[in-house]
């Protein structure tokens, strides 16, 4: 019987946005998008965020837009947009330098609650993961 050499499993870096593919946000609240890069041999050199195919400028006249990125074995980037308005709705994309991009569609609601939050016959309800990520992001934004 021939000897087969051992080949280690190599994971490709992957990108996830927590809570996607659609997020529903109340007007006036904070949009918190969390992008996680997994299985990367080294942290990405950068992570760009796009809104409707345009790179987000953190010093735009709109104001209230910030990013916190924690690099490590797992890299996490938080995009925070304060005082959400309807013009903030649209497609957001997380673009790490060393992994595939990932998208999420944000819907800023004008009181269309709860009917607009139904997906596939099921009403959207935040999970404990959403609450943890939101609490962590708020803590990071305030510290």
Could you explain how this protein is built, in words?
This is Ig-like domain-containing protein. Pfam families: Ig_3 (PF13927). InterPro entries: Ig-like_dom, Ig-like_dom_sf, Ig-like_fold, Ig_sub, Ig_sub2, Zig-8. One of its GO terms (biological process) is synapse organization. It is a single chain. The protein is mainly beta and 143 residues long. Helices cover 10% and strands 39% of the residues. The longest helix is centred in the C-terminal third of the chain and has 15 residues. The chain starts with 13 loop residues before the first strand and ends with a helix. The C terminus is likely disordered.
Helix and strand arrangement:
Layout: E1 14-17, E2 22-26, E3 31-38, E4 47-51, E5 54-55, E6 65-70, E7 75-81, E8 90-96, E9 102-109, E10 118-119, E11 122-123, H1 128-142
Parallel strand pairs: 2-9
Antiparallel strand pairs: 1-3, 3-7, 4-5, 4-8, 6-7, 8-9, 10-11
Summarize the structure.
InterPro entries: Ig-like_dom, Ig-like_dom_sf, Ig-like_fold, Ig_sub, Ig_sub2, Zig-8. The chain has 143 residues and is mostly beta strands. It is 10% helix and 39% strand.
